[in-house]
Amino acid sequence: MFKEVDHILHGGDVGTWDILIGLQALAPVTAVYGNTDGLELRGKLPQVAQLQLDGFDIVVTHGDQFGQPTPAKLHDAFPKAEIIVYGHTHKPLLELVDRTVTVMNPGGAGPKRFALAPSVGILELEPGIPPRARLVRL
Fold it and tell me: CATH for 8-137?
């Protein structure tokens, strides 16, 4: 599934640095720390990462700094972002607003939490075309 991935966005609760090393073997990784990550990861990862991929302004955050993150809270916090990827709730969510702004919570790819099946999100980006996204249950 991930053989042709160009970039990995990780919304936090990474677990260990070794997990990021494994992901980096697949593609470049942009990751943030989550509320369950220890001091080692918090010292190496930001709370919020901003980047541009294929012409899209993207924000990656765990979202716990907003209590229970919602698309509305995230839009308010990052009004210039065209794509927002977050974690914290571990509940898969995909929201497309005005065909240009996508908010995605890919869920959690690790062990099952909160009775939720493991999942990831896939974004397909091409300059000048609205982002395409889907959630994939593992």
Answer: 3.60.21.10
